[in-house]
Design brief:
The protein is an alpha/beta fold. It has four domains: 45 residues; 102 residues, Immunoglobulin-like (Sandwich), CATH 2.60.40; 186 residues, Rossmann fold (3-Layer(aba) Sandwich); 36 residues, no CATH class. Helix content is 30%, strand content 30%. The strands form five sheets. Strands 2, 4, 5, 8, 9 and 10 form a six-stranded mixed beta sheet that branches. Helix 1 packs antiparallel against helix 2. The termini are far apart.
Length: 400
């Protein structure tokens, strides 16, 4: 019951008592009318409260950041009466509470509302409900609805003809990587040494720990050609800088997928996540979903990820890092990889430029360039596609 409903009911009772106390017959119809309308409102609302079937429309295409997103909802009720007033209320992620009056369309109640210029992200629908009322605004009840899931808005992809990191036909020592079977050996387990086995197989750490010779058991496993590492560091965000990081990673994944190259996406966030992409469609959508929901909440330093020998980053034949924060330890790891004849490239998003600050000279980027690491620098004023394509121009930006 609403505040108005309680007031009308109380007024009806007061008028009835006054009519009885003073013997005023003209007041009886007034009291009866006030009480009757309260009863009718209560009955109408409760008889219209049945099981609700909710249908949500789809745009039929992927939602991309920056666009208006229509949300279409149609509700069918099994109540004995049609609701006189029905309002849809739900919380949509960072857009907060949304309230919209449902309009009658045949036997259904429906509404289509729009979320304007939606940023990239995952927007869960929470606390969805229908609030039923009567025409007089005296009664209102809330009917919870099943959780409809979430709205996923993908990062905007820029299509590049040639990445700044590419040279030749994906070459490695003059050969095409597509003709190489990317394989490697990983440590599977350790076991006791057997007489006659080569001492090269001894796992010295386990031997020292157990006090007896232990040998490594290796397994042959396929490796991904390229690892794309998105560094979602929480301490390196200003304005839309992280969204640019995500767009860069998505565009790179898309470019490699179009070429049919085996790729693994690694997101260094609060929870490290990986997704392999083996073709233009296989795994690509899941990788984009991962990027759509990515948040800059990572606490693990980039150098720690690069140092993890068991990770997909270490196993990949090539590495492309997208980051907005460079520390000497991370640069040392990348330099070590480059000097070991393992291809590595870097996309550096210049965070100060997104905060309206002048860019600084970046000697760490110059150090990477000096050992042959391709570098692309992306500032707030830069066109992302040009930065990802123009290796020489982007590299020159490292000089400040």
């Amino acid at each position: 019951m609403t505040t108005r409903g309680r007031s009308v009911l109380a007024l009806g009772l007061v008028v009835y008592v006054a009519a009885w106390a003073f013997g005023s017959k003209p007041l009886y119809p007034v009291a009866a009318g006030l009480l009757l309308v309260s009863v009718v409102a209560w009955a109408w609302v409760h008889l219209s409260n049945g099981a609700f079937t909710v249908e949500r429309g789809s745009t039929g295409s992927d939602l991309v950041e920056g666009e208006d997103v229509p949300v279409a909802v149609a509700v069918t009720s099994t109540g004995m009466l049609r609701p006189a007033v029905a309002e849809l209320a739900e919380r949509v992620g960072r857009f907060g509470e949304q309230r919209h009056q449902l309009r009658r369309k045949g036997r259904r109640l429906a509404i289509t509302y729009a979320l304007r210029e939606v940023p990239r992200g995952r927007y869960p629908f929470e606390n969805s409900r229908i609030e039923l009322g009567d025409p007089f605004g005296l009664q209102r009840i809330t009917v919870p609805l099943a959780a409809p899931g979430a709205l996923l808005v993908y990062p905007r992809i820029v299509h590049v003809d040639r990445l700044f990191s590419e040279s030749g036909a994906h070459g490695l020592d003059g050969r095409r990587l597509l003709l190489r079977r990317p394989t490697g050996y990983d440590l599977h387990s350790v076991r006791e040494y057997e007489h006659g086995e080569s001492l090269r197989k001894v796992h010295w750490r386990s031997t020292a720990h157990r006090g007896q010779l232990m040998v490594k058991e290796l397994e042959d496993s396929p490796r991904d050609e390229i690892a794309v590492l998105l560094d979602a560091n929480a301490a390196a965000v200003a304005g839309a800088s992280f969204d640019v990081q995500v767009r860069a990673a998505a565009s790179i994944i898309d470019a490699y997928a179009a070429r049919g190259r085996r790729t693994v996406l690694v997101v260094n966030a609060a929870r490290r996540e990986e997704q392999r992409v083996h073709a233009a469609t296989e795994g690509r959508r899941r990788a984009l979903e991962l990027l759509a929901a990515a948040e800059p909440d990572g606490r693990t330093p980039l150098e720690a990820v690069l140092a993890d020998e068991g990770s997909a980053v270490a196993r990949a034949l090539e590495l492309l890092v997208v980051t907005a924060r460079l520390e000497p330890a991370a640069v040392a790891r990348l330099t070590q990889r480059a000097l070991g004849h393992r291809r590595v490239a870097l996309v550096y998003v210049d965070t100060p430029s997104f905060a309206g600050m002048p860019s600084r000279q970046l000697p760490l980027l110059l150090r990477l360039q000096s050992v042959g690491v391709p570098v692309a620098v992306v500032r707030a004023s830069d066109e992302l596609g040009a930065a990802l394509e123009g290796g020489s121009a982007a590299a020159g930006a490292a000089h400040g």
